[in-house]
Amino acid sequence: MTQSPRERLTRTSMSLAVLAVFSTLTFPVILPYIFGSVSILLAIISKGARHSFPRRSRSAVIVASVALAINTALIVSTAFYFYRVLHDPALQEQFGKLLYQTYGITLEDLLNQLGLQNSALGNL
Question: Which of 22, 88, 109, 116 is 20 to 30 A (C-alpha) from 54?
Fold first, then answer.
């Protein structure tokens, strides 16, 4: 049972879309963008000269797009929360307590390790 190159591209595209979803839940940031983008690219290539996408390619594009959207939302929400922590003294205190309870390090020590000075909290 041999598969045509189009069917192999479609199957690979769907596999990469599933990997994009899995990596969004386990290793967010870089891997979902790689797997999702390659999945969408392979789905488009698998279309060939036809006017419509094969069903599995269409599904792969949808699944990969959802994974990319979720990953982007995670990154934006994390960046927004980090920005709020740096500018809101109440959140700094709450985050500092949680950070110390979990990792045994203060917020000031963490910022110093990241190359940010304590005075940078008010200037960022």
Answer: 22
3-state secondary structure of 24: helix
**DSSP character for 29?**
S
DSSP 40: H
Question: Residue 106 — left, alpha, or beta (φ > 0 → left; ψ -120 to 50 → alpha)?
Answer: beta
- Calpha distance 112→120 (Å, rounded): 10
Under DSSP, the state recorded for 54 is -
pLDDT at 1: 61
**Cβ neighbours of 17 (radius 10 Å):** 29
Instruction: Transcribe 85-117 into DSSP letters.
Output: HHH-HHHHHHHHHHHHHHHS--HHHHHHHTT--
Q: Residue 119 — very low, low, confident or very high, per pLDDT cuts 50/70/90? A: low
User: What number is the average pLDDT over the span 59-75?
Assistant: 95
What residue segments make up the domains of the chain, in order of their start? 1-78, 88-119
- The mean pLDDT value for 56-81 works out to 94
Evaluate the CA torsion angle 16, 46, 53, 3 in order and state its sign: negative
